[in-house]
Structure formats: structure tokens, C-alpha cells
Amino acid sequence: MDIKNKVAEDETVVNMTASPEGHTLHHNGVFSKDGKWIVFDGRNDDTKIGETAIIGVVNVETGEERIVYQTNDQTIYGPGVGAASFSPVQNRIVFIHGLPNADQEKPYDITRRTGVAVDLDKPMTPVFLDARDMTTPYTPGSLRGGTHSHCWSGDGGMLSFTYNDELVEPQLRVVGVMLPHDGKIEVDEVAGNNHGEMYAAIVSDVVAEPRPGSDEINKAFDECWIGRKGYRTSDNREVRYAIAFQGNVLNKQGKTVTEIFIVDIDEEKIKVDMRAVGNVGERPKVPKGIRQRRLTYGANLSDFRHWLRSSEDGQYIYALAKDENGNNQVIRCAVNSGEFSFVTDNPFSISSPFNLCKENKKITFIAENNVFVYDMDSNECIQITHNGPNDPKVNGTPSFSPDGSFVVYNQYQQIGGEEYLQIKRAVL
């Protein structure tokens, strides 16, 4: 495929933040439903969620910054907050929150965090979404580990997440969902527990030692919801909610390869299986009737961390895979057939997760310390920033505005002799 590369002629980059603090954008859902606010967390380093105290927003039109949530008694051990994203239908933000009792003995960790929401009109008021229950018998709809990288469904009614259990095989990462629930999931009020507004369940089946050549996986991760309103199967059946996720399998030679898996989300089946919460000595189980299926064979996704993306109509899943030169490129996979093909053929390697524009005609990503937009219709890859290799680092995942007129991204900027991660906007 012949790609035309061109650089935007006019300087289009505008600084949206300038305060001497970190302003980390999440990989999804950074815009409010009306496009007027962008949410960020206070990290100046991607690895420092446990040390970060604030969730903030910046106004797209005025540049006004607001703190909408701040932790109490923050230390280097926690609780910590980060990875914030807006609901697509209401002014609610979901983010990772470390356990309130985090300390030096039990600091913020992948198994000690939960999903919390805050509403723009009720700042500083946390809403704990997934219940955490460390006391037996475990409460159906609760978990006992850490949820992470929460992602809203297209209608804002559900959330997906990745999860690591604290008590059993904590290294096995899985994918789960939170469903609407009447009333709270009530648990015992002891340290390490919290009530939850939503019903949480695990939907990916993992094993510690997959059989080589089988469809068994030892890690499920970095998922996306399929379509804004689900997808249609090859026999024209409508599936309202479904998730695509990355799964690590072992090939016949025993080498780990990453493929795409799909699981349909049936709310009734999930909630009716009260035993899926598991017993002492067990991880939470996948509810009966919920089954994952392997979509790709030989896609061998890139080991560069990224999240899957779906077309609005739910017919395609997008991911990163390496081309014959070892460069990260975007591939597209048909949901109903598993057939996949390369979308990009850049002479360089994509060095960030990527996002799709709403109409699914454009993809944005970082490469060679610059932000690019690839237009699938014109087959052009447009460089929209003008950084050299020695300029401050462009970081994270760029995102399109809801109307597709500009892209926002993170870049470090010198302030008072220190570098702080700022939010920038590049007009298309």
C-alpha cells in the first residue's frame, strides 16, 4: 500500500494547560459529552498513579482548570488516583482509585484499587462503582482485587475493566464488566472493603498454564466495547453488548502470541449466576453461559502496549501488529470472520496507543516524537506536529475531539527549570 506523507503547512498547535503540574490524559474518553471539558489526572509520570492526588478538567474554550476530585491524606504509598475518562452520555468521570487505607505496608498496587466516579456538578464526592469484599462468604457482584483502565460502553450504561485478584493468582490479568444495579452491592464494613453502585463480574476465562496450540489464554487485557450499539452477527442476529480483548495464547512451539478474542455480554446470565463470585481459595469465575471465542489466528498482535478499538457499527476491530520490517502498524479485523489486513504501511513504527475518529475514517497516533493522523479514505498519513527528536517528549495517547476538528495530546514542557506534562491541541 502506497502511503502519502505530508506535513501540515500551518502551525496549528495550541497549549491548553500551562500550570506547573502533571496533566495526564487517559487513552479513552477524555472529552465530556458536549466536548467542552477535557479530563486529566495529576500524574507527571505514567507510573505514578499511587502517588497522584487529583483528577482535574480543563475547559476547551477558556483554558480554565478545575480540580474535581482530590484524595485525602495522600502519600507516596497511596491511595492514588488516575486514568480518568468521561461517560459518553452524562457528566460523570470514572477513574482508578487506590484503597483509602493504603500505607507503607499495603501500598497502592494492581490488586489494591477500585473504580470510582465523580460528577461534574458534585465535585469531591466519590461514587464507588465496583464493590470490594474481602470477607467470606463473598457477596455476588463484588470482587476482591483491583480494577483498572475502565472503559464506558457506547451508551454509558456499562463499564469494562481489567482486573487482578489479590488473594488467588494475582498475576493472572482478566477482563470484567460492571453492570447497572438497583441499589448498592452491600459488603461488610471492614478495612479493604467498599460498597459498590454497580454489579461487577469477570467475563474472560484464563488459566495459569495454557496448552500449546490451544485457545486457552493466560492473560486477557486491553479491551474495547464492540460498536457504539453492539454488532450484528453473520446470521443477522443483533448483539447489544460485546467486548473484544487481547488474549495471550501459546502456539504449538510454546511461544506466547497475542490474538483477539470476543465475549458477548448478557446481563441476565451474568446476574443469575450467584456462584460466579467464587469461594475461598478461588478467583471470581466467569458466569455460566458467558463464553469467549477466539477471533484471530495468526494476527500475532504487537507486544507494544495498546488498546483495541472498534468501528462505530461494530463490524471491525483495530489493533497494532508488526509488519515485515518490525514496525508497529494498524490492522483491521472483521468481527464476523476474523479476517484481518494491514491498514497502515508507514515507513516508521507507531509508538503509542491509537484512537479512531467517530466516523472511523481517521486514526491518530504518535511516532518519531510527533502526532500523526492517518486518513483511511485518502490513504494519507499527515504529520500534524513539528517536533524534532531532541524536543520535549510527546507522550501517551492522542484523542480526537468529538466533532473531529482537532486532536489533543500530552507533551512535556519546561516551566521554571522542570518538565511538566501539558495538554496540547492540534487543529486538523
From TrEMBL:
Domain of life of the source: Bacteria
InterPro entries with a match to the protein in the record: 6-blade_b-propeller_TolB-like, DUF3748, WD40
Family: Belongs to the TolB family.
Protein's name according to its UniProt entry: DUF3748 domain-containing protein
Source organism: Sphingobacterium chuzhouense
